[in-house]
Specification:
With about 475 residues, the chain is an alpha/beta fold. It is built from 19 helices and 11 strands. The two termini are about 45 Å apart.
Length: about 475
């Protein structure tokens, strides 16, 4: 596998599948605040290098024993003799759009002292344009440059806005295809579980047709499911369909670059993908938790989901009941990046904050994130010479998955797919990340995703969808959004 470099069977078990899949982070973004330049915040001149270094982050979706908190504690152990270098993790409540609003308000007003912020990758342009986070120096030569180039190229690109890097990749995400070999085999459909046996959408559609599914009755088996509720999951699915159709909405600096004709092509691709007889009818009301439960309980044979679902399924299903592969066509990147706030970046605390980020995104720390259920951001973590997770962090983590392990104990409890399958999964995850695509890069992302969700969800719900008319309305609104109007 080649990584880029960047210089800058048994029936489903409903009772088990009903385990609460909590702690999910919806990837919603509310209306954005644009603007450029930064303002000096209250108390900036008085800052000193005293601890703790405060890291603001959303909740840990993996349910793995809070790997982020464990990494902070490992840093504190390594710097036990220095009060100025101690760190503290503050987890923000609410969904992602609420967290974004909290961070914007706190950083613009100076009401909370955050030194490091863990930002959704789609927020980087907005926070950079508003002057709320500090650019990071990217080494061109030497050991530091080699370390920087170890980040997967597509993932590292999410830290960049207008040719400057504002963060370091912490954990990433990419769409994957989960499927039910047991149900396919029962229908006499040959299943190749090798991770290099990539599905195409046509093959998936053919399997759905062979299964003879009846999507009119939602209680019956349905072909595939995804997250088509009116939230960020719908944006992700739409952008993936647009990318498969060759439709790009913006250039690298957030300028609108599409047209009514291009949008129609993208919308037609999406409608073909989620048409009657293919997608589970309930998908239009599904988010991450609902779609994962439908898959585990046998109401869908195929599922588009994120990497953490691999660990979650260990709690819900027997090893032979599920498998994972690359998503057909294009897959969208997700994840979070660590940035130093502008207030701290201009203070004596900056050096300690940047050193903490370097530790949290190190090869060892990234391996801990992967072991916990996140997707790691470094190419080396997916190779045969990957450094192991910090020993004390590894000992504190329970196996990945967002359903409690205590709910899957005793005779007959799932045991996971084993080390060989796990190694194959890690290889395919690394390969998927190298070819993933980004959502539009813009300081107005919050407004963009709201507009896209509104138009697309209405189209999916229409009895007789007219993609030409929908494309015309969407084109007009997107031109306004990306112009900041």
């Amino acid at each position: 596998m080649t990584y880029g470099h960047r210089h800058t069977g048994p029936r489903p078990r409903p009772a088990r599948a009903a385990v609460v899949l909590g702690g999910l982070l919806a990837l919603l973004c509310a209306a954005c605040t644009g603007g450029s330049g930064g303002t000096r915040q209250p108390g900036q001149d008085e800052q000193t290098a005293e601890g703790p270094i405060v890291v603001a982050s959303g909740l840990d979706v993996t349910g793995s024993g809070s790997v982020r908190q464990q990494l902070i504690e490992e840093w504190n152990r390594l710097h036990a003799g220095s009060e100025a270098e101690q760190a503290k993790l503050v987890e923000l409540p609410g969904a992602a759009d609420q967290q974004r609003s909290q961070l914007l308000g706190a950083l613009q007003s100076g009401s909370a002292r955050y030194d490091v912020v863990n930002l959704d990758i789609t927020w980087i342009p907005e926070f950079a344009e508003a002057g709320l986070i500090s650019p990071l120096t990217v080494a061109e030569t030497g050991t530091a440059a080699d370390d920087e180039r170890d980040f997967i190229r597509q993932v590292h690109a999410t830290t960049v806005w207008k040719d400057r890097s504002y963060a370091r990749p912490f954990n990433t995400d990419v769409g994957l295809l989960y499927y039910r070999p047991d149900l396919l085999t029962r229908a006499d459909i040959a299943v190749d579980k090798q991770p290099n046996a990539n599905w195409t959408w046509d093959q998936l559609y053919a399997s759905v047709k062979t299964l003879g599914l009846n999507p009119v009755r939602s209680e019956d088996l349905s072909g595939w499911t995804s997250q088509l509720e009116r939230y960020e999951g719908l944006t992700v699915n739409t952008v993936e369909a647009f990318a498969d159709a060759g439709v790009e909405l913006t250039d690298s600096e957030g300028t609108y670059s599409s047209s009514k004709g291009e949008l129609k092509k993208g919308l037609d691709t999406l409608l073909d993908r989620v048409g009657r007889g293919r997608v589970q009818p309930a998908a239009i009301r599904s988010h991450e938790t609902k779609s994962l439960t439908d898959f585990a309980e046998g109401r869908a044979v195929f599922l588009r989901h994120w990497p953490y679902a691999y660990g979650a399924l260990e709690d819900l299903m027997d090893p032979e009941e599920y498998a994972v592969n690359r998503l057909p066509g294009k897959a969208v990147l997700g994840g979070q990046n660590l940035a130093v706030t502008s207030v701290t970046g201009d203070s004596p605390r900056a050096g300690n904050a940047r050193a903490l980020i370097t530790f949290l995104t190190s090869r060892e720390s990234e391996r801990c994130l992967l072991d916990a259920g996140f997707a790691a951001t470094r190419a080396s973590v997916y190779g045969s010479t990957a450094k192991p997770c910090w020993p004390r962090v590894a000992a504190a983590l329970r196996p990945a998955g967002d359903a409690p392990k205590a709910a899957a104990t005793g005779e007959g409890a799932p045991q996971g797919q084993g080390p060989e399958a796990r190694a194959a999964y890690i290889r395919l995850l690394g390969a998927a990340l190298t070819e993933a695509v980004q959502r539009p890069r813009t300081p107005y992302y919050g407004a963009f995703t709201q507009v896209l969700q509104t138009h697309v969800h209405a189209l999916l719900a229409a009895q007789r969808p007219d993609t030409a008319e929908a494309a015309g309305r969407l084109d007009k609104d997107l031109r306004d959004v990306f112009a900041g109007r």
